[in-house]
Amino acid sequence: METYTRRQYCRWPCQCPRAPPRCPPGVSLVTDGCECCKACARQRGQSCTEADTCDFHRGLYCDYSGDTPRYEIGVCAQIVGVGCVLNGVRYKNGETFQPNCKYNCTCINGAVGCVPMCTNSRPPLVWCPNPKLIKMAGKCCEQWVCDDSRKIRKTSPRHISSAAYEGEDEAWQKNCIVHTSPWSPCSKTCGLGISTRISNDNDQCRLLKESRLCNMRPCEVDITQHIKPGKKCLAVYRANEPMNYTISGCVSKSPYRPKYCGVCTDNRCCTPYKSKTIEVRFQCPDGTEFSWKIMWINACFCNLNCRNPNDIFADLAHFYDYSEIAN
């Protein structure tokens, strides 16, 4: 049987033109699939490869099914109810499953949204200097104990609100238990990326995938130059002058002065712990307008808990009640 050698479309080191290409209005300028150069994203019906990527802003993906058995050249197609793959297991769109006893998950159009099942365990607060999360025999969910007493305190001190220990009941709306998952980590560590979540907060009580743009930090700015002498971290960076967001040649109608998460010179990483979602109106050169939801960072925290951006369970584990506050 003749062996087929798959063609490599990416070449290293990268060789990029000095100036990025000028894309037609409405066509995204993205980093190519080789993570090398800026390129105009391929549109619906156009051919695509591992280097020539489809326009993810428009919900397109590269369908290689027509190029069997090579799977080299595909066609950009619209994502419509695609399934999900988690830990090597494929799930159908709309399928609900439990990857383990701690989480109940649903596949929604390629995104996996999970609800933690272990919601009753709360860490000891000010009265316990050495809290410890331990595995209880015969139980799925860990529980907090204090190293000093080895007992779980059931009552809260007078100066701590009892609301901190109450279960988070989902809201009821027209016979619908409303649930909105946390926003996923930004797909890019710098520059414009995408963050997603699932929610059934709508008239049909249907779980739908929501998207917003996010920008953790600008790629072109060396934030380490702004760290104060004697310090190792800059938690939040903010440019001196306002700027306009740009998507595929379309510019935001209003200028903004956003905050970004900074960087550290040691092993710590800075991530947002307070943010909200704003809606930004864009105007294109041809006069058309559209709106995009964008993550607006309010505060960042630098710590050693540098999580894998692809770990969808990271924000749900243990301290999920006190993680990023997102609206």
From TrEMBL:
GO MF annotation list: growth factor activity; heparin binding; integrin binding
Assigned protein family: Belongs to the CCN family.
Annotated ranges, domain VWFC: 82-147
InterPro entries: CCN, Cys_knot_C, Glyco_hormone_CN, Growth_fac_rcpt_cys_sf, IGFBP-like, IGFBP_CNN, Insulin_GF-bd_Cys-rich_CS, TSP1_CCN
UniProt keyword terms in alphabetical order: Cell junction, Cytoplasm, Disulfide bond, Gap junction, Glycoprotein, Growth factor, Secreted, Signal
Organism (species): Zosterops borbonicus
GO cellular component labels: cytoplasm; extracellular matrix; extracellular space; gap junction
Main location: other
Domain IGFBP N-terminal: residue ranges: 6-79
Protein name per Swiss-Prot or TrEMBL: CCN family member 3
Residues in CTCK domain copies: 233-307
This protein's record includes keyword DNA repair: no
